[in-house]
Amino acid sequence: MNREFNEEKEIKKWVRRGVIILAVILLLTVLRPFGTIGAGERGVQLRFGAVTGKVFNEGLYFRIPIMEVIKKIDVKIQKEEVTASAASNDLQEVKTVVALNYHLDPKKVADIYQEVGMEYDNRIIAPAIQESVKAATAQFTAEELITKRPEVREKIEALLTEKIGYRGIIVDELNIVDLDFSTSFNKAIEKKVTAEQEALAAKNKLEQIKFEAQQKIAEAEGKAKAIEIEAKALRNNPQLLELRAIEKWDGKLPQIMTGDAIPFINLNR
């Protein structure tokens, strides 16, 4: 009797233990008081829907079920691409495609979630890019937007950093992907480039003509100088003239001579 009672008591004890273990498993599975924060994330603690200000770093966290919720927020570098329409300083319409790399300040994710929510890209970043592009574009002429592109990029980045930096959104890098002007402006630029190319070709041609003329002048001056030197030499040395005649003589005397003409060679010499 006692043996059966003890066995029954032991079975009930194990049943109770099993029920407790099963309840704990169900509690952990359903209520999930433990969780993990992944790499490049932060966890914002909410208590009954309100932001407590506590932020969990990467790793394991504990929360009070039902009462507390942990909202995970990505703090890795993200990309936002926006097309902005603006007017240049000389009133030319231009569409600018801007690509922004940014990340959230891990120390301010609780404030961002509380003040802006998870749609910070549409509510804060995109409008700030539009406004920064318009403000920067208005400081340059349409031509300068092309020739001073790095300076334009730096101006947009500086304005954007000022607008969103205090909210905990950090600008990592900004790039101007594309600049699109009106059809009339594109045609004007094309004509200008063509005119500049034609002017350069004409200048090169003129330089070539000048060079060729200078060569001819130098050649003529050289010939004139040579003639002058030779004439001077002949004046100072008459025998040189006879030497030149001898060099050109073919060795034959004239067959017919008139008057007192004699051969030009002085045999006594």
Describe the structure.
It is a single chain. The protein has helices spanning 2-30, 109-115, 120-137, 142-147, 149-164, 183-236, 239-248; strands at residues 34-37, 41-47, 50-56, 59-62, 68-74, 78-87, 93-104, 169-181. It has seven helices and eight strands; from the N terminus they run αβββββββααααβαα. It folds into three domains: 2-74, no CATH class; 78-181, Tetrahydropterin Synthase, Chain A (2-Layer Sandwich), CATH 3.30.479.30; 197-250. 52% of the residues lie in helices and 24% in strands. The model has no long low-confidence stretch (mean pLDDT 81). Helix 3 (120-137) packs across helix 5. The protein is an alpha+beta fold. The strands form three sheets. A three-stranded antiparallel β-sheet has the order 3-2-5, covered by helices on one side. It has a three-stranded antiparallel β-sheet with strand order 6-7-8.
Itemize the secondary structure elements and their pairings:
Elements (H helix, E strand, L loop, with lengths): L1 H29 L3 E4 L3 E7 L2 E7 L2 E4 L5 E7 L3 E10 L5 E12 L4 H7 L4 H18 L4 H6 L1 H16 L4 E13 L1 H54 L2 H10 L21
Antiparallel strand pairs: 1-4, 2-3, 2-5, 6-7, 7-8
Labels describing this entry:
269 residues, alpha+beta, Tetrahydropterin Synthase, Chain A, 3 domains, three-stranded antiparallel β-sheet, 7 helices, 24% strand, elongated
